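ARCHIVE CARD
Drawer: 12
Card no.: 0347
Subject: one protein chain, sequence and derived structure
Cross-reference: see card 0346
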Amino acid sequence: MTTCAQAPAARDRPPGSLAFDGTSGWRAPGAAAQTRILTARFVKSLLLDRRLLLIGLIEPLMMLTAFGQVFSGIVHAPGFPAGVRYVDFLLPALFLTTALQSGLQAGMGLVDDAREGMSARLRTMPVWPGSILVARSLAGLARVVLRLLFLLTLAFCVFGYRPAGGPSGMLAAVVLALVIGWSLGWVFIALACWVDNAETLHAVAGVVMFPLMFASSAFVPVDGLPSWLGWIARLNPITYGVDAARDLTLTGTAAMGALVAIPTALTIAALALPVAVKGLGRQG
């Protein structure tokens, strides 16, 4: 006679165990372990997608080349920092705008997960939704680090980039850009959890990204913008992040902009996280 093991009643199950019969002996890992495992999985899938990886590496190089040529004449305009090449002015901005896209890439990954049924499978497990979102954001951040390494290598080799603030200032600027870009990127992650459609997400992201990038000090000094656009730029957290990264690469010291940009970006991330978790939880 065959004897089948019976799952214990719900009240007898240990905390964190699966909530359905047949898996009662399996205990769920903690949120940190869930995040680590999911991040490794997302990074691995990212590295295996060579076409997406190649496009992601080329994009910042195209921006450096295109903007470097289009706006190079602005170095002679009033208000532009004296003795600074445009590539030295532009690169810190590209650090931040590239890092900002980590959230968009994470959002696109979440949309793909929903379409392919990955999100539905994860919801059958005792996985904290925040672990999925944080893992996606960290995987997007890892991709940005690769892109920035590629961008800096080409800037050094092709454009003769030598930051006046030294390697320490440049490294600090990159870290600052990653923190601010990753934090602000949570807006796109929250959007992805509610939009559920890649085309719509791209359209909405374009509407959000365009003013963040161009109504700021990323490509021209704020004093060189039209007065109405200058007022918008002064309210834009990207302006303070770019200015702080630029100060680090040019002088090796951080200005007051960092004290505005970092708390603002972290606050936005803290507000976006519960919105994203709620949006992920409502997906059918």
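Annotation on reverse: The first helix runs from residue 31 to 48. Confidence is low (pLDDT under 50) at residues 1-8, 13-21.
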